[in-house]
Amino acid sequence: MIRAGIFGATGYTGYELVKILQQHPQIVTAFATSQSFAGQHLSDVYPQAPHLPLILGENAPFDTVDVVFLCLPHAAAAETAVLALAAGVIVIDLSADFRLKDADTYASWYDKTHPAPHLLAEAVYGLTEFARDWLPGAKLVATPGCYPTSILLPLRPLLTSNLPITGPIIADSKSGISGAGRTPRQNTHFVEAHNNFSPYKIGRSHRHLPEIEQVMSWFREDAPTLIFSPHLLPVERGILSTIYVNFAKPVTLEEIRPYFTKMYSHEPFVCLLPDGELATLAHVTHSNKCVIGLTMANETTLVITSAIDNLVKGAAGQAVQNMNVVFGLEESLGLI
Amino acid sequence: MIRAGIFGATGYTGYELVKILQQHPQIVTAFATSQSFAGQHLSDVYPQAPHLPLILGENAPFDTVDVVFLCLPHAAAAETAVLALAAGVIVIDLSADFRLKDADTYASWYDKTHPAPHLLAEAVYGLTEFARDWLPGAKLVATPGCYPTSILLPLRPLLTSNLPITGPIIADSKSGISGAGRTPRQNTHFVEAHNNFSPYKIGRSHRHLPEIEQVMSWFREDAPTLIFSPHLLPVERGILSTIYVNFAKPVTLEEIRPYFTKMYSHEPFVCLLPDGELATLAHVTHSNKCVIGLTMANETTLVITSAIDNLVKGAAGQAVQNMNVVFGLEESLGLI
Amino acid sequence: MIRAGIFGATGYTGYELVKILQQHPQIVTAFATSQSFAGQHLSDVYPQAPHLPLILGENAPFDTVDVVFLCLPHAAAAETAVLALAAGVIVIDLSADFRLKDADTYASWYDKTHPAPHLLAEAVYGLTEFARDWLPGAKLVATPGCYPTSILLPLRPLLTSNLPITGPIIADSKSGISGAGRTPRQNTHFVEAHNNFSPYKIGRSHRHLPEIEQVMSWFREDAPTLIFSPHLLPVERGILSTIYVNFAKPVTLEEIRPYFTKMYSHEPFVCLLPDGELATLAHVTHSNKCVIGLTMANETTLVITSAIDNLVKGAAGQAVQNMNVVFGLEESLGLI
Amino acid sequence: MIRAGIFGATGYTGYELVKILQQHPQIVTAFATSQSFAGQHLSDVYPQAPHLPLILGENAPFDTVDVVFLCLPHAAAAETAVLALAAGVIVIDLSADFRLKDADTYASWYDKTHPAPHLLAEAVYGLTEFARDWLPGAKLVATPGCYPTSILLPLRPLLTSNLPITGPIIADSKSGISGAGRTPRQNTHFVEAHNNFSPYKIGRSHRHLPEIEQVMSWFREDAPTLIFSPHLLPVERGILSTIYVNFAKPVTLEEIRPYFTKMYSHEPFVCLLPDGELATLAHVTHSNKCVIGLTMANETTLVITSAIDNLVKGAAGQAVQNMNVVFGLEESLGLI
User: Fold this and answer.
1) In angstroms, what separates the C-alpha of A301 from chain D's closest C-alpha?
2) According to DSSP H, which parts of D233-299 are helical?
3) Cβ–Cβ below 8 Å for C236 and D190
4) The whole model's pTM is what?
5) Tens digit of pLDDT for each residue in C86-119?
6) ipTM score assigned to the predicted complex
7) % helix / strand / coil in chain D, to the nearest 5?
8) How far are the Cα atoms of A24, B2, B4, B297, C209 from residue B87, in angstroms, in the given order?
9) Shortest Cα distance, chain D CAs vs residue A91, angstroms
10) Start-end of H helices in C176-252
């Protein structure tokens, strides 16, 4: 049995992780931390949660675990990662700290000097389907952001193809409110959110933009730029990204689809819809799947609909998927 | 034109009041206060609100107004009322400060010594349909609580009748989340509230209990006690109270209904449903109505369904209704 | 492996059953029927469902199964049960057809002559915690209604005690909209239901009333009558019943609680909350639990809050729990 | 007083129209029709509606009215329009029947031969801010579709400018569920819609596409094509369109904004947000406003956020706005 510690177990991502690990046949949860609820149990925070004691992060016994999952704010995650790695513990980070390879880019988007820039090169960007070759034996894995997962998975077959993509790619994304975190704020108040729908940080201003463009550039050296428009959606969970990709000359779905099927038809967690079907949240909530629909809007514009559960494939589920690969376990263990 | 000042304009009740006064042909809003948003405009807080400047409560110019509406936390409201009355301004209070006639009861339920106990006797409890004779010319009006309004209006014809009511009356009430106020808290977070439904402070522990029982005793000297079970309902606004009243001997709707029709058939804001129909939130949201349905469950138990909009008849609407009567205006002005 | 057939797999209860059986280690689903979608697959109806072919009920091969689950309209269920029993197949019925022991009562509440009155005596009323002794080896099990489950489980320790219960018991129940079934109707239209909350068939007019009173009379010969007020709640799933029980003389929680702990402290699916805590939907959604809170409103009135998931413990979950006991399996198999 | 008749008063659009006309000081509603509820009253369908008798459309007394509003299915609307015009009654149509100028285009998108092609040239396309010069004295007005209104109002200043727009324009639109109509369907069932978000008919397949492109071509002869992606949003009302416009060379907001301010700064119902602000549903629900935000995503791509209430500016409100202009009344009468 692999022994795991969870940092930040009381946030929405942390609790989702606890639930997944409870179902996982090869994992035992050794400890869980919470700065706000230390001394209480997870069941005091979520009525259906297990009776797991919550300790302060600084009291975490690294010597009792093989792996830690970090569901912490940025910067705090990197600081904890340093301690864990020093103690010989594998780190699956769910924060933004190790997603960007460049410390300056990190500093300019996250308003902090990176606490551990020496680890950036080593960290594996854990978009599992893409990172599978680098994950086995990795010491530090950066779990991708929720929006990036929904956008990068469908862009990967296109950008790694020789299809003549042109102009900016547009990702119009809509996320359930759990993506905004558990701390009560005005915009997540039920009364403000319930009958509302609102865009925020559209264009090139959301922190997930540099992350997505970084990985797009790995897929294709001269990848187009991205225009990214996130919206807050009055549901608990789920992301739907509607993505617009232009081609320099007419192409058909018959030409495009093989790149997707070749890359994903054997994947347990990527589901390609038949022609004419569109991805919806109902396809993915509470699952680790990314469901993708392909539609030609005209001869040169492809519209992709891509859906994930932001808390599962967009966070805790993909983290466990990564852990499974790191430890050489069956990749879908605990996730189906 | 009557000149009004609004204290606490940025809470849900305060903003509802602003919207009602905007439609009112005899009122001009002279100032609006906010402790958190002073210096900004109401339209900075609510995108559809008028461009009303917000000032600090301590800077309110009492000499520019005839009446003030207090949408303030308890105790703060009483302190402001003292100042307003000293300045010769009529006070329509929407807080709990002047609802209870007994300062000790207030202290035990609201955890504060009453700031102005000498005003308690003078304050008119503004359940308008009941208080109409005392309102004209009143200096200080206490607008009833939202739950009390939904419960007291239908109980009034029964308790003032000679029907032999027995045993505790049970009010099982369900309120939309705006009733919990605008300050973000964990239980009003969209993710926690959206797929949930939860009772709270049931039995005899909610602060509205002593208020309701006080008024029940005005209706009938030996009124039965109340069991009161509030629940938090995942809608923006509205209260539905399902009320169970037992009789010491068999009675029929034919005997009961005349007490209701005699008291309410000419009321503009109390609507009696025909036999067999039940009140729902859809009957009342965004209106100043209280809609009442009467159903015999058996020979001796009456089930009342009573619905109001907690922000209108349960707060800002009834406050304006009271003001209309105080100033001798048409009671429904600005409210239909 | 036990082979199961599911009749009516495309309704909300049927699909919930399919999902539970998928997780069940001892069950294989041999066939699933649907009158509306025969010829298609379950995944055509629910995007996350397994690719299960749907056949017409009249084509169901009884010889391929050990047990059938009937998620059918009333009357249709009884007719299918007759065929199944004749073929030697065990029947777990989720309809109302075998819940009432008296065919005349059935006829008067369900507007049909019972299609198989000779089976009523034999059918086991599968409130599992109560029926455990009669279930092993049963041929025909009637799964209780959703409201009855939420009301009967907490009433059982009281009614089988010698506590002096008096007067009618009141159950004020609130149900998520999946309880109204999958067929689109005006009252389940999103726009009508989303900002609404509505009582219906209150008093003594809902079909679950005779079922609840029948079982109450099994618990205590001279059980009090029930007043039952169902309400439609704008959430997908979950029932909360707030239940009011009066005693003929003062009692304390210290006297009442032992009857609950003795009966339920070892039950895997009944959860008693500590004093002062109240059951909410968040305690139970997507689980087979019934969570019960006990609060004294005054010396002689107990308020019970009781929560279940209407589709799980209120339907498909309890059906599988019953099947487990019938076949001598671990009772919680596939349900935790 | 102008006398109006309403055809199809019980749909969501029809009822919204009734509510607006009730507030209108110059209109009296002479009759209202409903095929499904004839013989009943509107208050039997909507509990807060006026006690308006509903008659069959074929019994409508045209001689008692000056104007009719048609909230009917397509084709039925055109047939009624012919009768009304023959009776000398002005027609404000809210259906799709007179929006497209070309009968063949109509036939190919609406699967019907147009019932009155001779009227197409005469009908005024009532995007009020655009059509103001043609409306006074018009006999037949086609109220634009809800999506088209949200897209065409912000595109108008751009397309009528000399800015070098290139490539397809993309409109990613999200609509509340009232847009799908009142007839219960599976996709509008509360349980299916409440936790879901789903695209439909994306690309170039929605019936509003030819309507939008027709008007775009009026604004600019060589207007680019449109890619249009509608999505179903789990709120009652409101449309948010996120629109992407590319320019052939770099432009700035300072160059773009004047076209908007010149065209709209004096409009009562078009509201331009300051730089950096984004339109949300909270800006517009229950109002006749179109709120527009402008954001440059990069040097050559403008992102427009445009919000309306689909039932008001997207239907009944704009219909009344048009009627006001037709009859020479103050344009905002009954709408503020």
Assistant:
1) 9
2) 253-264
3) yes
4) 0.97
5) 999 999 999 999 999 999 999 999 999 999 999 9
6) 0.97
7) 35, 25, 40
8) 70, 16, 14, 53, 61
9) 33
10) 190-193, 208-219
